[in-house]
Amino acid sequence: MTATTHDHAHHAAEATGFKRWLVTTNHKDIGSMYLLFSLAMFLVGGAMALVIRAELFQPGLQLVDPYFFNQMTTMHALVMIFGAVMPAFTGLANWMIPLMVGAPDMALPRMNNWSFWLLPFGFAVLLSTLFMPGGGPAGGWTMYPPLMLQTGTAFPFVIFAIHILGISSIMGSINVVATILNMRAPGMTLMKMPLFVWTWLITAYLMIAVMPVLAGAITMLLTDQYFGTTFFSAAGGGDPVLYQHIFWFFGHPEVYILILPAFGIVSTIIPAFARKPLFGYSSMVYATASIAFLSFIVWAHHMFTVGMPLAGQLFFMYATMLIAVPTGVKVFNWVATMWRGAMTFETPMLFALAFVFLFTIGGFSGLMLAIAPADYQYHDTYFVVAHFHYVLVTGAVFAILAAAYYWLPKWTGHMYSERLGKAHFWLSTISVNVLFFPQHFLGLAGMPRRIPDYSVQFADWNMISSIGGFAFGFSQLIFVWLLIKCIRGGEKAEARAWEGAEGLEWEVPSPAPHHTFDTPPVVR
Amino acid sequence: MAQAESGYYVPHGSNWPIIGSVGLTSLVIGIALYLEGMGLGLWVMGAGGALLIYMVWGWFADVIRESVGGLYSAQVDRSLRWGMIWFIFSEIMFFGAFFGALFYARFLSVPWLGGEDPATSRVLWDSALLAWPTAGPGNLGLDWKPMGPWPLPTINTLILLTSGVTLTVAHHALKENNRRRLITFMWMTIALGLAFICLQAYEYYEAYAHLNLRLDTGIYGSTFFMLTGFHGVHVLLGTIMLIVITLRCMKGHFEADSHFGYEATAWYWHFVDVVWLGLYVFVYIM
Ligand SMILES: [Cu+2]
């Protein structure tokens, strides 16, 4: 094994201009496309969130039609989950996994291109449904029947768009697994892999396992709608609750798909800025694997109020609470890594620290929701909204931002503006808490989610939440500005951009050359 | 398939993925337009499908050319293996969703509707007579019969099991460089696959014509046709793969110790076989 062979016979020169991006098989090109696509979708989904927060600024109906409001809540979720967070992680995987394991590229480079390019097509179809007769999907991103079956013309387009996004995710994940299992440099044993690689391996496994299950569920929706099957109709002997079981069999592992790579990122960044090796590396690996295993046997905690035998309620309640154990191991390890470390607080570290604090808040509210009898009160209230936004925004999104700041010097060859980064961090962290923390109070007081109007006793906290929402939304423009500046120039970055950074990605120059590790490094 | 001396082969660019994206998107837009009764649906669908077939053809032609040209090292071979294994795993999970629906209906929703759960039967339907196989409380008067395991499904089981054997014989022949036996047993496998598809089609005809069992015959019809239908589509795909691989064998492709394309097809065929055994037991017999 010496050098990488390239296809000089058939494509003497690499394509240039826009075509380069259409046909590229380079993991760095594809990673960049994923990341930029994700940023674009983050802004689109964010704009939808602002429509929601604007309408909820005051009680009563002011700005949008209630039906359009419901389309916004549905689309906001689909765009953020499938368009922003998942592609961001896949982009990071594309860029960093080959660099971290010392591989010349992803294992299946052409399929890598296809995984990416299906995304813009899928989202073109999905977003176009907003302009169709009857509007876009409005029954929530979970698409429960029978409500989902009342969607207008958009219905089959939504289903197929999600099929396309699912195919993209499955192919992307197969590529990640094949890369990690087969492309590691000599000496890079499994238990020497950076944790970001480990968490992605397990994430990819989860995706390959559950995206097809989602495909099955929405295919049944499609045939129930057009071909007379009765999977979800009691009249035919089926059950609408069956859909919820199948959906959440996908849906719960999906939330770990959205957070496990974030764990990997935080486990990379905290040691770098604490200048200490990660505490409890192997326990981190085992905790990740345990979380992945448990994720398959907890799904019905989303359905406590739907009606379920008592034994089922108890099983799903205790299994869910069990997840707090491996998660607690992780939080303990992050804190122990910082113990007596020589810490500095550059922007990536700030976001990683905020992640540890704020994700844990989301974890605790999740524990509250796991208690079946208590969930009867919280279910479908703003408490749930607060819970999953703490884990997804201050969890997943903050980790992605931390990763972007951490690796931007490697990607662009320039240091970003630390002043703008810190401004972005503080404004985001303060506003996101103003945005979501009051939603706990609203939910505990009984305000239902997915409703454009509310009774007046909820007015104060909603107004505060909306102010936080707009502040958070516009704070992200600082990041966009910082990113443009960083791509166009700035202080030159060293190969090892951060003093305490460890790993093969810091052995190559910044910016990383187009082809790296054509000759695999030897890891000792 | 000569092995590359060294290095990991990374193609420098490919038009196929973007063609595939346009093709797949057009295909599904066409189907959606058709389902919603909007004009042009079938045309868009046809164009998308044609583009997708063109993409699969061209993409595989590239891969085969590179493979025969000796560009693939043992490491590339392992990547392809992992890719195929995880693809088959994703397919298993897809079938899992439909098997899950079947088990849920049989062991939970139908018994509940049938009176095991007093609240359901009192509030929703008074249908104490409901038991599997059923088309549901809304179709109680409907005259239809379920599909038993005898004779067609049993014959089909034997056909598929035999095809697994003939394929294995062919594989051993390939390893022993016995081309004539390889090709003979490959065509036997294909013939068995085609026989399965024909019998399955005939079974559907029987269901519609004589048993009054249809896709819309409640939960029984839904699970029966969706499970066997998706399986049938996979058999069709597997048979096409077998035909392509056999034609390649006849062109002299593959070597005794290096034939991943062949093995991937064989894995796929065995996967289709195993899914059928699940169907035979849980859909037809039980
Ligand atoms: Cu869950």
Automatic annotation (TrEMBL), chain A:
Compartments (UniProt record): Cell membrane; Membrane
Statement: the UniProt record of this protein carries the keyword NAD: no
Primary site of residence: membrane
GO CC list: plasma membrane; respiratory chain complex IV
Biological process annotations from GO: electron transport coupled proton transport; oxidative phosphorylation; respiratory electron transport chain
EC number(s) per entry: 7.1.1.9
Catalytic activity: 4 Fe(II)-[cytochrome c] + O2 + 8 H(+)(in) = 4 Fe(III)-[cytochrome c] + 2 H2O + 4 H(+)(out)
InterPro entries membership: Cyt_c_oxase-like_su1_dom, Cyt_c_oxase-like_su1_sf, Cyt_C_Oxase_1, Cyt_c_Oxase_su1_BS, Cyt_c_oxase_su1_dom, Cyt_c_oxidase_su1_bac
An annotated Gene Ontology molecular function: cytochrome-c oxidase activity
Residues annotated as domain Cytochrome oxidase subunit I profile: 21-524
Transmembrane segments: 34-54, 74-95, 116-134, 154-183, 195-222, 255-273, 285-304, 310-329, 350-372, 384-408, 420-441, 461-484
Biochemical pathway: Energy metabolism; oxidative phosphorylation
Record key words, sorted: Cell membrane, Copper, Electron transport, Heme, Iron, Membrane, Metal-binding, Oxidoreductase, Respiratory chain, Translocase, Transmembrane, Transmembrane helix, Transport
Topology in membrane: Multi-pass membrane protein
Family per similarity comment: Belongs to the heme-copper respiratory oxidase family.
Free-text function comment from the UniProt entry: Cytochrome c oxidase is the component of the respiratory chain that catalyzes the reduction of oxygen to water. Subunits 1-3 form the functional core of the enzyme complex. CO I is the catalytic subunit of the enzyme. Electrons originating in cytochrome c are transferred via the copper A center of subunit 2 and heme A of subunit 1 to the bimetallic center formed by heme A3 and copper B.
Protein's name according to its UniProt entry: Cytochrome c oxidase subunit 1
Species per Swiss-Prot/TrEMBL record: Spiribacter salilacus
Upper lineage: Bacteria, Pseudomonadati, Pseudomonadota, Gammaproteobacteria, Chromatiales
TrEMBL record, chain B:
Topological relation to the membrane, as annotated: Multi-pass membrane protein
Protein name: cytochrome-c oxidase
Membrane-traversing stretches: 16-35, 41-61, 82-105, 150-170, 182-202, 222-245, 266-285
Residues of the signal peptide: none
Phylogenetic lineage: Bacteria, Pseudomonadati, Pseudomonadota, Gammaproteobacteria, Chromatiales
Subcellular locations according to the entry: Cell membrane; Membrane
Source organism (scientific name): Spiribacter salilacus
A Pfam family annotated for this UniProt entry: COX3
GO molecular function, one term: cytochrome-c oxidase activity
EC numbers for this chain: 7.1.1.9
Alphabetically ordered keywords of this record: Membrane, Translocase, Transmembrane, Transmembrane helix
GO BP annotations, alphabetical order: aerobic electron transport chain
EC class of the enzyme, as a word: translocase
Domain Heme-copper oxidase subunit III family profile: 4-286
Chief location category: membrane
Family statement drawn from the similarity comment of this UniProt entry: Belongs to the cytochrome c oxidase subunit 3 family.
Any single Gene Ontology cellular-component annotation: plasma membrane
